[in-house]
Design brief:
The complex is a heterodimer of chains A (about 260) and B (about 260). Chain A is about 75% helix and about 0% strand. Chain A has about 260 residues and is an all-alpha fold. Chain A has one domain (about 5-255). In chain A, α2 (about 30-50) packs parallel to α6 (about 120-135), α3 packs antiparallel against α5 (about 105-120) and α3 (about 60-90) packs antiparallel against α8. The longest helix of chain A is centred in the first third of the chain and has 30 residues, at about 60-90. Chain A is elongated. The two termini of chain A are about 30 Å apart. The mean pLDDT of chain A is about 90. Chain B has about 260 residues and is an all-alpha fold. Chain B has one domain (about 1-260). Chain B is elongated. The model of chain B has no long low-confidence stretch (mean pLDDT about 85). Classes of the chains: A mainly alpha (about 260), B mainly alpha (about 260). At the A-B interface, α2, α8 and α9 of A face α4 and α10 of B.
C-alpha cells in the first residue's frame, strides 16, 4: 500500500472514530434513530398483523415480514442523521477546517459514509433483538449476514443522500427533507404487503422503486430461504444507488469552497 | 370573571390565534407533520394494506381509503396539538410569553389564543383530507350534514390535543421536551382504531384500543363517511373529546399557575 493511500485510510479511520466518540459521549443522539423504527415496527405489527390472513401472503408472521423494512428504516434514519450532523458542522465552521486539510474530498466522504454504515448497526441490532422477542423468525446465519449487508448498504445510501443535501442547503433545517426522502424511498416498496397484494399507485411505484429489491433481499431469511436470485438484484441496486448518490455528494463536496 | 366575556379579551384571543396560524404556515418544520406526514402515510397505507377490506371480519366499506380517512384526520390533529405545543414552548424560550404575561390581558387568552390557532389548523386539516376523499371518489354516506359533523369533531379533537400540548409546553417551557412527545403520539395512535378495525387488531392493541379515548373520537369521525350516524358512537366520541380536552385544560391551567408562581 502506497504512503498516500495509507494516510487516506488513517483519515477515514479517524472520522469513523470521531463518529464513534460522538455516539459514546452523546448516546441520547442515537435514541431517535432507534426509537422511531421500533415504535413503528411494534405498532404496525399490532395494527396490520391480520394481513397475513390474506391469500397470497408468503408468511404467517407479520413480524417476520415487517422487520426488514424496520431495519431499513433504522438505517435510513441513521444515515440521514449523518447529513444533519454534517449540516451542523457546516453551520459551526468545523467542516471548513476539514476542507482546508490536505485530505482529498473522496476521503472525507468515505469517512462520513463509512461511519454511517457502522452506526446503522446500532438501531439494527436493537430492532433485531426486539423482533426476536416478539416472535419473528430467526433468519439463519446466511439470512442474518444478508440483512446486515442490506442495513449497512442502506446506511451508506442514506448518508450519501443526507450529505448531498447538507452540502446543498448548508443548514440543519434541511433535516426533515433528509429523513422524509428515506422514509418515502423505503415505504413505497413492498413494505406492508407482497407485490401481488399491493393496490393502486403503490403497486406501480413499488415495482419500479429500486429499494424494493433491497427490502426483498433483506427479507429472504426471515420469511424463507436465502437464494442468489433473491440476493443479487438487491446488491446491484445498493451499488447503483451508492454510485449515483455518492457521485452527487462528492460533486457537492468538490463545489464547496472554504 | 367579567374579563372572560369582554369583547377585548376575545379580540386578543383572535389575534393570538391568527398569529399562531401564520407561525405554522411560515415554518415548514411545524407544517410538515400536520399535512405532509399524515398524507404520505395515508397514501402508503391505503396502497400497502388496501386489500385488508377482503379480510374476514372487516366491516363492509366502499374502500380502504374511506375507512382510513378518519384515522388520518385525527392523526393530523394529534400532531397539530403537538406542533402547537412546540410553538408555545418556543414562545416561552424566546421570552414572547413573558411579554404577554406582563401585558394587560387576561392570562387565559394566552392559552386560548394558541388553542384558537390549533382549532383553525384542525379546520384546515379536515378540509384537506375531505378534499383528498372527494378527489379519490370517497362517498360520504351521511352527505353534507355528515361532512359538517366530521369537521366539527376534527376541530374539537385539535383543541383537545392542543390543550395537552399547551400543558406540556407551559410546564416544561422547552420545545425539545414537547418534541420528545412525538413518538409517544404514535404509540397512542397505533393502540387505537385509527388505522384498523378493533376486531382485527392483534393483542394487546385490541384490548387497549377498546378503552383508548382516541378510538372513540376516530370512530365518531368515521361514522359519517363509512357507515351511518350512530348515537352511541357519537356520544362516545364527545366523551372522548371531553375527557382529553378536560384533562388538558386542567393540566394547562395548573401549569400556567405554576409558571406564574415560580417564574418558570
Amino acid at each position: 500500500m502506497s504512503h498516500g493511500l495509507r494516510v487516506d485510510m488513517s483519515t477515514i479511520r479517524a472520522m469513523i472514530e470521531r463518529s464513534r466518540n460522538e455516539l459514546l459521549r452523546v448516546p441520547g443522539a442515537a435514541i431517535p434513530g432507534v426509537l422511531a423504527p421500533t415504535i413503528f415496527f411494534l405498532g404496525l405489527t399490532a395494527v396490520f398483523g391480520s394481513l397475513t390472513l390474506l391469500p397470497g401472503f408468503d408468511t404467517q408472521s407479520y413480524q417476520s415480514f415487517l422487520i426488514p423494512v424496520s431495519l431499513m428504516q433504522g438505517a435510513g434514519f441513521t444515515g440521514a442523521a449523518t447529513g444533519v450532523n454534517l449540516a451542523r458542522d457546516i453551520e459551526n465552521g468545523l467542516f471548513d477546517r476539514f476542507l482546508a486539510s490536505p485530505a482529498p474530498r473522496w476521503v472525507l466522504l468515505t469517512g462520513l459514509v463509512s461511519s454511517a454504515s457502522l452506526r446503522a448497526l446500532v438501531p439494527g441490532t436493537f430492532l433485531f433483538i426486539v423482533a426476536m422477542i416478539v416472535g419473528a423468525n430467526f433468519p439463519g446465519i446466511l439470512g442474518l449476514i444478508v440483512a446486515v449487508v442490506a442495513v449497512m448498504g442502506m446506511g451508506v445510501v442514506a448518508a450519501c443522500w443526507g450529505v448531498a443535501l447538507a452540502l446543498k442547503f448548508k443548514t440543519q433545517s434541511a433535516a426533515p427533507l433528509m429523513q422524509a426522502g428515506m422514509l418515502v424511498l423505503i415505504l413505497t416498496t413492498t413494505a406492508y404487503a407482497p407485490q401481488e397484494l399491493l393496490t393502486g399507485w403503490l403497486a406501480e411505484v413499488a415495482q419500479i422503486n429500486p429499494a424494493t429489491q433491497v427490502v426483498e433481499m433483506a427479507r429472504q431469511g426471515f420469511v424463507g430461504t436465502v437464494t442468489w436470485s433473491g440476493t443479487w438484484p438487491g446488491i446491484v441496486t445498493l451499488i447503483g444507488l451508492i454510485a449515483l448518490l455518492g457521485a452527487w455528494a462528492l460533486r457537492g463536496m468538490r463545489r464547496t469552497a472554504y | 370573571m367579567s374579563a372572560i366575556f369582554s369583547r377585548q379579551s376575545w379580540r386578543v384571543v383572535g389575534e393570538l390565534g391568527r398569529r399562531s396560524v401564520k407561525q405554522t404556515f411560515r415554518r415548514p418544520q411545524l407544517m410538515a407533520p400536520l399535512i405532509i406526514f399524515p398524507t404520505l402515510l395515508l397514501a402508503i397505507q391505503t396502497g400497502g394494506a388496501g386489500r385488508a377490506v377482503d379480510l374476514p371480519g372487516f366491516p363492509p366499506v366502499e374502500s380502504f381509503l374511506a375507512f382510513m380517512l378518519a384515522g388520518a384526520m385525527v392523526q393530523s390533529t394529534l400532531l397539530a396539538g403537538n406542533s402547537g405545543g412546540i410553538a408555545l414552548a418556543v414562545d416561552i424560550e424566546m421570552g414572547f410569553t413573558d411579554r404577554l404575561l406582563v401585558a394587560p390581558i387576561p392570562r387565559f387568552s394566552i392559552v386560548l389564543g394558541r388553542l384558537a390557532g390549533t382549532a383553525a389548523l384542525g379546520l384546515f386539516t379536515a378540509i384537506w383530507f375531505l378534499a383528498i376523499g372527494f378527489a379519490f371518489g370517497v362517498k360520504f354516506t351521511e352527505g353534507p350534514l355528515g361532512v359538517l359533523v366530521m369537521i366539527l369533531l376534527v376541530i374539537g379533537s385539535a383543541v383537545a390535543f392542543g390543550s395537552i400540548g399547551a400543558a406540556i409546553a407551559l410546564r416544561s417551557g422547552s420545545a425539545s421536551v414537547v418534541q420528545g412527545m412525538f413518538p409517544l403520539l404514535f404509540v397512542i395512535l397505533f393502540l387505537s382504531t385509527a388505522f384498523f378495525p378493533q376486531d382485527l387488531l392483534l393483542e394487546p392493541a385490541q384490548t387497549v384500543a377498546e378503552y383508548n379515548p382516541l378510538s372513540f373520537i376516530v370512530d365518531a369521525v368515521r361514522d359519517p363517511v363509512v357507515f351511518a350516524f350512530s348515537a352511541e358512537d357519537m356520544l362516545k366520541g364527545l366523551l372522548g373529546l371531553l375527557v382529553i380536552g378536560g384533562f388538558g385544560t386542567v393540566l394547562a391551567a395548573r401549569a400556567l399557575q405554576h409558571r406564574l408562581r415560580t417564574g418558570g
